[in-house]
Amino acid sequence: MHKGFSLVELLIVIAIIGILAISSFAAYTNSIRTSRDARRKADLQNIQKALETYYEDNTSYPAALDLLAPTYMATIPTDSVSTAMYQYVNVFGQGYYLYSCIENTNDTGPGVNQSGYAGTDCGCGSTPVADRCRFGLSSSNITLP
Q1: Residue pLDDT tens, the chain, 145 long
Q2: Is residue 25 domain-resident?
């Protein structure tokens, strides 16, 4: 009778460990992307609240987001991915669009456009189409394009 494991048994165990490690890493990576997307959505919702408060005080929306700080927001949030950015489009002071990246390609929630909003560039990817912003909010008096 032999003591120990055969080469086949060891290879099977190593293969199983490898498969588990790869699937765990994929799940971890997906959860990080989902977390960053949730942060982006929360940031845009906070900016939206500040914009609405600004509008109540001034009867128009600001020309730039910088005008919200420090009165309406302590600081203007930025995307956690250094190359990506939030976009603010002022519509003649009477409306606005807010855009950001979305990394989760399975997200179909409100404001998500996986094809990207035409004419927007959030720096999300490595090609002009991939760079398109995929999440948007707007003032209540206009709808997202």
Answers
A1: 667 788 888 899 999 999 998 888 888 888 888 898 999 999 999 999 999 999 999 999 999 999 999 999 999 998 877 667 889 999 999 999 999 988 888 888 899 998 888 888 888 776 555 678 899 999 999 888 8
A2: no
* Residue 54 included in any domain: yes
* Stretch (H or E) spanning 97: strand 96-100
The Cα-based distances of 115 to 8, 69, 129 in angstroms read 48, 32, 8
Residue with tokens 């991939």: 130
**pTM (global) more than 0.90:** no
Q: Is residue 133 part of a domain?
A: yes
For residue 88, the surrounding DSSP H or E stretch is strand 87-90
Helix or strand holding residue 90 (H, E): strand 87-90
CA gap 47, 105 in Å, rounded: 24
In the chain, the number of structural domains is 1
CA dist., res. 50 & res. 77, Å (int) = 12
Residues 80, 123: Cα–Cα separation, whole Å: 12
